[in-house]
User: Which sequence fits this backbone?
């Protein structure tokens, strides 16, 4: 049986995530009440028996390390042949990587010392329950150099922050664009790829010295256009959330209130694991009026809340009101406070009778640890 | 193999069939029965061990151990997956004299003396797997040391008029026990045994061997071992515990203990300081969703639930579905149960994985001043739509 290892890019899109990545990488952004974004990538890999995983990091990875811990919750192990964090080489500049090929340079050593035949690469900003075992098999069957896991019905004429492709009737790509306003019939890359380990090592070695750092543009699209790279597309029809910006993060959080979206993301046959926190179940007080909301464990809710995502260990005092909010772990919302379309990052204190109003298009963001 | 010497080894008696819990223990041992939304009964003594820095625990199972064994696994949720000690499941095994079921609590420990010997402990802590409480055993062991006792028994005060229902410890000054009376008709004290013992290891080992030689013995700690020690003049002390403690051996007490976790100032607060955390094995459940029609107050709701109905003063465990128009009041819903629309669940315990059909009526509130009678639906049962289950009825 052919085997695969995994590479997870923890922070390629950090610069689009505003305050959410001020103190953490994209991989560690809390989502859906009890998860971090990387839980989806790790769980998909664990569910596909991919146990050797390199996580590419650049900076701000303390909270990520803290979350992953020893990896036992994903049935993975933090050791030589298990999960390895790949810190950056000292390169002088402290920005994010310019592209995945550049970032992969840090993974060369791990790639070379692994034994698996294939590599599954993924971002942490695209959330979906994907069957990587099926994608791996499809890649092997195709005989192509690389398989792109892609989503139909996602292109809407707006600028897409990644690779998009037009397919012919047989599912073969006939056009590719990068960072372009793709028309409706195009499939959008989910930032997930399958490639042979040896080929990946070769292209990292060959492209990096020539200033080519962008996997999608410099390898896949250029190779496709030149006819030097054969590209297979694995269509993923399931629920897919692209958290590529603060705005998308907010919209996707609100989308979790839709049953189809929620059940498509959290499927009983593809469990999403996370680090458990040993909290007591959430307490609903006498004054609690919680409707159309997603609620994690460990909170004390005695106020009013609708259409919101409530993470762990939140205190919502009696008389406080939330509507269309994302409230992260450890926030305290005082009595009489009234919040609409607000993202409260971790450990924010909202004083009694404070009123904060954003709009669905421009949600108000409050930084981690602030008191307002 | 080398085993590190341990100051204290805990032995947790989890073999109970729990026949008074009726249908709830038809397919599972009592310690594996769900409690408080996300816990199982055994989480309480196990977490107490961890919070008391006891890292070596033997769990003695016998009755339907599969689910319990699976639940305990490698002990990781309780930080008991250490390679020096940790948690070990001890089931009855076949030796040269043939296989023997555990005859009594003392015999269960006797059959596993080899496990304790590995660690050369100073003390052995004997615990029961069917009590709900938070207790720092380290304090009890310190008390045992400072009083210079050979055995210490945890006791709690019960109302004098109820004392004849318990095993009562009669004490002199400083808590020294001179007599143990099982359910005395005329109690002399109100100090009831909690079934928690600290023994000096050498004393325990010696008297378990002696008791085993007596064919007439019931091999029970309370009835046999403690009187043996008293007759031989060993010092036994009573350690008084005043916190919340409940034997959840009956349907009513299991229901009442769950209700005790609710309210603004609950009688038994599941929350606590860092050294009072109750650990449980987590399942991979997403956050709960409360729909637009949901009305939930004065309740616990664990993760993985989809709630569209009304819930008042109840404990809803993980992964339950409560449909629109359903009403749950003063009840305990165990994991993965489904309550269909229009069903009314009142003063009831609904077992794991049950389906309560649309419009069914389960239980009912007691008349003023009367004790509630709790209706119980056993694990994995289906109640047909429109069916009526009376208060106190057990299905």
Assistant:
């Amino acid at each position: 049986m052919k085997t695969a290892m995994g590479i997870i890019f923890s922070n390629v899109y950090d610069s689009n995530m505003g305050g959410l990545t001020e103190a953490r990488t994209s991989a560690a952004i809390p989502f859906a009440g009890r998860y971090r974004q990387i839980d989806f990538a790790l769980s998909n890999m664990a569910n596909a028996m991919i146990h050797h995983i390199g996580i590419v990091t650049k900076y701000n990875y303390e909270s990520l390390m803290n979350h992953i811990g020893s990896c036992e919750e994903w049935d993975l192990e933090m050791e030589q042949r298990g999960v390895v964090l790949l810190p950056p080489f000292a390169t002088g500049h402290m920005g994010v990587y310019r592209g995945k090929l550049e970032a992969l340079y840090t993974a060369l050593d791990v790639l070379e010392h692994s034994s698996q035949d294939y590599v599954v690469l993924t971002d942490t900003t695209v959330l979906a329950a994907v069957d990587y075992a099926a994608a791996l098999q499809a890649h092997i069957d195709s005989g192509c150099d690389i398989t792109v896991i892609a989503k139909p019905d996602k292109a809407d004429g707006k600028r897409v922050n990644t690779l998009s492709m037009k397919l012919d009737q047989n599912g073969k790509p006939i056009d590719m664009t990068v960072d372009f306003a793709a028309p409706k019939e195009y499939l959008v890359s989910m930032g997930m790829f399958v490639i042979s380990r040896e080929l990946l090592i070769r292209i990292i070695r060959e492209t990096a010295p020539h200033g080519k750092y962008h996997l999608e543009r410099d390898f896949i699209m250029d190779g496709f256009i030149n006819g030097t790279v054969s590209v297979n597309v694995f269509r993923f029809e399931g629920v897919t959330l692209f958290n590529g910006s603060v705005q998308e993060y907010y919209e996707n959080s609100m989308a979790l209130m839709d049953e189809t979206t929620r059940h498509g993301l959290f499927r009983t046959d593809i469990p999403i694991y996370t680090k458990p926190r040993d909290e007591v179940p959430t307490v609903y007080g006498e004054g609690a009026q919680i409707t159309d909301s997603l609620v994690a464990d460990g909170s004390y809710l005695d106020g009013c809340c609708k259409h919101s995502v409530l993470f762990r260990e939140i205190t919502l005092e009696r008389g406080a009101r939330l509507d269309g909010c994302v409230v992260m772990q450890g926030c305290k919302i005082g009595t009489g406070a009234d919040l609409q379309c607000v993202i409260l990052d971790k450990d924010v204190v909202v004083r009694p009778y404070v009123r904060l109003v954003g709009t669905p298009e421009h949600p108000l963001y409050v930084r981690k640890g602030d008191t307002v | 193999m080398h085993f590190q010497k341990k100051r204290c080894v805990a032995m947790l008696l989890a073999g109970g069939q729990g026949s008074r819990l009726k249908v709830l223990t038809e397919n599972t041992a009592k310690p594996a029965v769900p409690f408080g939304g996300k816990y199982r009964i055994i989480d309480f003594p196990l977490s107490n061990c961890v919070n008391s820095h006891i890292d070596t625990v033997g769990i003695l199972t016998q009755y339907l151990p599969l689910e319990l064994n699976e639940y305990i696994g490698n002990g990781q949720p309780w930080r008991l997956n250490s390679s020096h000690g940790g948690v070990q499941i001890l089931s009855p095994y076949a030796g040269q004299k043939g296989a023997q079921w555990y005859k009594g609590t003392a015999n269960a420990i006797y059959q596993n003396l080899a496990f304790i010997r590995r660690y050369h402990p100073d003390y052995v802590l004997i615990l029961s797997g069917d009590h709900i409480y938070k207790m720092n055993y380290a304090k009890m062991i310190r008390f045992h040391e400072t009083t210079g006792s050979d055995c210490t028994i945890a006791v709690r005060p019960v109302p004098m008029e109820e004392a004849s229902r318990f095993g009562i410890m009669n004490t002199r000054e400083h808590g020294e026990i001179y007599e143990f009376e099982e359910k005395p008709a005329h109690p002399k004290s109100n100090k009831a045994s909690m079934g928690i013992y600290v023994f000096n290891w050498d004393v325990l080992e010696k008297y378990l061997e002696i008791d085993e030689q007596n064919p007439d013995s019931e091999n029970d700690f309370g009835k046999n071992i403690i009187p043996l020690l008293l007759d031989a003049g060993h010092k036994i002390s009573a350690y008084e515990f005043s916190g919340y403690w409940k034997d959840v051996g009956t349907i009513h007490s299991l229901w009442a203990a769950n209700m005790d976790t609710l309210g603004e100032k609950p009688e038994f607060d599941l929350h606590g300081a860092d050294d009072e955390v109750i650990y449980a094995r987590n399942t991979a459940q997403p956050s709960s969703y409360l729909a637009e029609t949901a009305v939930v107050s004065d309740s616990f709701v664990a993760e993985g639930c989809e709630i569209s109905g009304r819930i008042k003063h109840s404990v809803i465990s993980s992964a339950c579905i409560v449909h629109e128009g359903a009403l749950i009041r003063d009840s305990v819903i165990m994991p993965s149960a489904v309550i269909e629309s229009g069903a009314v669940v009142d003063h009831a315990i609904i077992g794991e994985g049950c389906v309560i059909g649309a419009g069914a009526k389960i239980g009912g509130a007691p008349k003023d001043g009367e004790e509630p009678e709790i209706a119980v639906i056993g694990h994995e049962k289906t109640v047909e739509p429109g069916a009526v289950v009376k208060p106190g009825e057990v299905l």
About this structure: The helical segments of chain B are 43-51, 65-72, 105-110, 113-117, 137-146, 201-213, 221-231, 251-259.
